[in-house]
Amino acid sequence: MSKDDFDYEAHERLRERVANEADSVLWTFKAYYVGADFYSKWDRRSDWTVFGIAGLLTVALIWDSLPNIIPISLAISTAVIAGYQRMANPGDTAENYYRAAHAYQRLFDEFRDFIMLELPDKKTGLEEMEERYRELAVRRRKLNEDMPEVTSKWYDELDDSIYEEVGTHDMAKTKLTGSAKLIDEAPEKNLEGSVTDRIAGEAKLNEEDSTDENEGEE
């Protein structure tokens, strides 16, 4: 029987770090989408409000039978709403948030590919796994520096249902990265075990699996 010298504990620590990074990216891109949708709706509603008031103003001027206070009030309302919209710029904010959301979602997809294809495979090699993790982590930090700030109120709109939304199959709906675990027991550090397995469930590996493989090679 050949000796399995794979460092399962180091892999488990790596799996937890990957889960932390992927979990953060997941919540971030979801929060950006929530904020982007809000600003996009605000922009459309403001446009329709201005359009509606302008229409009423036009009618009031054509009829020329209404008190002067009405067209004056409508004109002032149109100017105030249009001016506020111009200063707040919800359309540009929505566009920037969508751009950030797309960027973080692409990064999350790469984390998922890494978790599902490379992290569960010992043949990839622990060193190569760690290098890929560092590459993805650096990209996340660069995004954090380059993208607009997303406030906590958009995170408050989210709940654990986001894990269900990103699942690619029935198992991934409850364990996003559990199959990357190589050992059964390991101390959890940053994430709760259930969250770690949701994010890195497919990368969960067991020493017993390796023992069975080696016995089969004898």
What is the strand and helix layout of this fold?
Layout: H1 8-63, H2 69-88, H3 90-118, H4 126-146, H5 152-155, H6 161-165, H7 170-174, E1 178-180, H8 193-200, E2 201-204, H9 207-217
Helix pairs in contact: 1-2, 1-3, 1-4, 1-8, 3-4
Brief summary:
This protein is mainly alpha-helical. The chain contains nine helices and two strands, in the order H-H-H-H-H-H-H-E-H-E-H.
Biggest β-sheet description: none
Silhouette:
rod-shaped
The fraction of residues in strands falls at under 5%
| Radius of gyration, in angstroms, nearest whole number | 26 Å
Question: What average pLDDT do the residues reach?
Answer: 77
Compute the separation of the termini in Å: 6 Å
List segments where confidence is low: pLDDT < 50 over at least 5 consecutive residues. Answer: 168-176, 183-190
Helix content: over 70%
Order of helices and strands: HHHHHHHEHEH
Number of helices: 9
How many structural domains does the protein architecture include? 1
Number of strands: 2
Report the structural category: mainly alpha
Defining traits:
single chain, 218 residues, mainly alpha, 3% strand
Describe this structure as you would to a colleague:
- The structure is a single chain.
- By secondary structure, the protein is mainly alpha-helical.
- The chain has one domain.
- About 8% of the residues have low confidence.
- It starts with 7 loop residues before the first helix and ends with a helix.
- Helix 1 packs antiparallel against helix 2, helix 1 runs antiparallel to helix 3 and helix 1 packs parallel to helix 4.
- Helices cover 73% and strands 3% of the residues.
